[in-house]
């Protein structure tokens, strides 16, 4: 990741600096004033922008910016440079026109000010102790410095039991996290914090031509180092929209890439498109590394991403290292779902009634995800209560349902919870690999989405029409859902029926990668299972874990999810015990 780590304290000594340096990797730069602070930052130079430390009338100032930020000008959509950020600071502070994902720390007049992007795609953690304030872009580094931190199971509840966490609380006791549009001020050992979750601009009109133009600019940004775009092309609708914009651009040179097995339709359909339309395309599908390499990979992955995905996910994400960070930047179609009413449709079934009546159990059941029953009854009850508390907090923080229709309400709920809670840690990790960003996950476009009449958002009507008007040949190729293909013309429900029917008759790609992965590390898994540390970990329901793992390796493949998630949690919790 592009990262920052350090300590703010009246007792920052040489020993404290050495302790920090034993935790973080080699930095791009650091700032140290004895008896005040030590901060280091690093990662890719394109996603970690550091100013020089300036002294003016005995006062020191500096700036650290992580991520990839953009601003629209009269002529383009441009990545901000270090100088651009400095100019922004001199001209009326931070501006809501800055897009992209970023977190920015400034120090001036003996005060630290930390802000992040409006959607919370980049974040930061901090811990206040009696003697210091520790700040870090990585949660596990705070634990290594402070020692003795414990998992906050009520705050872990929604992260484990639901699709994703709902609030911006941290799953480690005492640690705080910067929420969307957040602002943290630190001066004289005192912190002041506020955040500002996304809210659509009221009174805007639906202007489809301007939305298309905005998306075109987002898909073809002016990058600071003349990098070439590489589009992550899948079989889905969102990346195809971006492809249509790139194909009709006169300014952006680009290639495409896909990760995975050639038998996967999410790989074969992009291959067919790129071959027939003569688009440069690369498929990355390296063999699973050795056991020792795999273990190192998933330990690092789970420490950085904090249980948003199971450890097997790293098998796909490791391919990003195959892209050339010195000549390419990655464009990804993530969160295009918000423009086609794909979020929280299970909650739509009970919708307004459940929300108006504050029916917490109904809402919770509509948001449930199944990551495996690995905890004892007492811990399960604590986590369930924590998830219910977060649901109520969300209901209280949202605008009243009477001010918007139920579908707008659910989309806003998704923007406020899914983007910052599912993506911020992974975004930080990605920023250490390659310059990257998601055109759909930008405040400007999401603001546009809420101006669209619902008939254009349902079934992806707007995005489908955009493909048809920009590059009609792309409509010839089927789309991919649930590991199988369906005709481009089918709406959401029709695609679901089509996919279910194909799966029933065996016409569906079966992804074996999780099974291959778990069997490749079977000896390691069994060692962890039989260790005293696992057996004696009080929150566990050890008999059920032992039963699931044993039966899986005896051939019950239906238990792969439980084994995958248990191992993920077990590796993660060892960073905090």
Report what the structure shows.
By secondary structure, this protein is α+β, with helices and mostly antiparallel strands. 40% of the residues lie in helices and 18% in strands. Strands 4, 5, 6, 7, 8, 9, 13 and 14 form an 8-stranded antiparallel sheet that branches. Strands 2-3-1-11-10-12 form a 6-stranded antiparallel sheet, covered by helices on one side. The mean pLDDT is 93.
Summarize the helices and strands and which ones pair or pack.
Blueprint: E1 3-8, H1 14-21, E2 29-33, E3 37-42, E4 48-50, E5 54-56, E6 59-72, E7 77-79, H2 82-90, E8 99-108, E9 111-116, E10 125-128, E11 133-136, H3 139-146, H4 153-161, E12 175-177, E13 183-187, E14 190-194, H5 208-219, E15 228-232, H6 237-247, E16 254-259, H7 265-276, E17 281-284, H8 291-305, H9 314-317, E18 328-331, H10 345-348, H11 351-356, H12 360-367, H13 377-397, H14 406-430, E19 436-437, H15 443-449, H16 454-457, H17 461-470, E20 479-481, E21 484-486, H18 492-504, H19 513-520, H20 522-530, H21 532-535, H22 542-553, H23 560-573
Parallel strand pairs: 15-16, 15-18, 16-17, 18-19
Antiparallel strand pairs: 1-3, 1-11, 2-3, 4-6, 5-6, 6-7, 6-8, 8-9, 9-13, 10-11, 10-12, 13-14, 20-21
Helix pairs in contact: 4-13, 6-17, 8-23, 12-13, 20-22, 22-23
Global mean pLDDT: 93
Global outline: globular
**What percent of residues adopt helix (DSSP H or I)?**
40-55%
Number of helices: 23
Strand content: 15-25%
- The first-to-last residue Cα distance is 24 Å
What is the C-alpha radius of gyration, as a whole number of Å?
24 Å
Q: Would you identify the regions where 5 or more consecutive residues have pLDDT less than 50?
A: none
> Biggest β-sheet: count, sense, barrel?
8 strands, antiparallel
Secondary-structure-based class equals alpha+beta
How many strands?
21
